[in-house]
Amino acid sequence: MPEVVYQFASAVALDLDKSVTPAATRAVDDELGTVTLTMKDSFKTSPAYQVEVFTVQAIQGFLIVTSVVLIGAFFLIWTIQRTAEIGLVKALGASNAYLLKDSVGQALLLMVGGIVVGVVLAMLTGVIFKQMVDSGFPFDLQATTALGSALLLLIAGLVGSALSIRLITRVDPIIALGRDR
Amino acid sequence: MSLKVVDVTLTLGDGEQQVTALDHVSLNVQAGELLAVVGPSGSGKSSLLAVVGGLRQPTTGQIFIGGDNITALNPPQLATVRRDHIGFVFQQSNLLPALTALDQLLLVAHLRGRRPHAADRRKALELLGEMGMAHRADRRPGQLSGGERQRIGIARALMSDPTVLLADEPTSMLDHGRGRQIIELLAAQCHQRKVAAIMVTHDPDMLDCADRIVHIVDGRLAAEGPGSHAQN
Question: Which residues in chain B are contacts of A89 at CB distance < 8 A?
Answer without folding.
Answer: 96, 107, 111
